[in-house]
Amino acid sequence: MKIGLCADHAGFEYKERLKKYLKSKGHETVDYGTGSAESVDYSDFAHLLAEGVETAAVDCGIAFCGTGNGMAMTLNKHARIRAGLAWNPEIGRLVKAHNNANVLVMPARFISYRMVCRIVGEWLGASFEGGRHLRRIEKMVCTL
Question: Which terminal residue of the chain, N or C, has fewer Cβ atoms less than 10 Å from its own Cβ?
Answer without folding.
Answer: C
